[in-house]
Design a protein that fits this description.
This protein is α+β, with helices and mostly antiparallel strands and 186 residues long. It is 32% helix and 26% strand. The chain is built from 6 helices and 11 strands. α4 crosses α5.
Length: 186
Amino acid sequence: MRYQCASCDREGKTIEELSHCIELRHEIIDYPDENDIRDNNSKKQKNSKVKGFINDELYVESVIIDGEPKFLVKGLLSNTITIKERIETEDTTYRPLEKNECGYFPYNFTSDEIQELTKKPIGTEQILDEIKEQIDKYIVAREIDKHLILGNILLTYSQEWIHTIHFLFLVGETESGKSTVLHLGR
């Protein structure tokens, strides 16, 4: 640790070295030196996180907001949603994935969109209805097939929690809509 007098800019490795400044009632500022920063940073493990729980108190997801990687954080105790650049625990610092680290198209939002999305709660039925509207708009198929597509779209949001998943195998004539189903799930 290093110390500096805010009035006369004297520096010292110990507070005693600035005893004259203390007698004059100058403000003394303490700041870490290079060794403190290195020691503190080397103790913490650094991890990137796509999504998941942190300390059973937070649920996080890496997103891109205004072109920058951020976490959308849901406080499980407070039931609030916030935006954070990183999350630090006692032994680990978590950071969101950069755009080029994702093996998929990351969720991309503006700050205004995030504010709009967090204003009102969205129910499960509302989400299902909106997805079903999109399916009805772009897919011509039997109703049971549309429900299977709906289930597959929902599965993409939670597939890491399920140990065994099926693969959707689409068969049909040229221009029958196989690719449209895949684009809808994107």
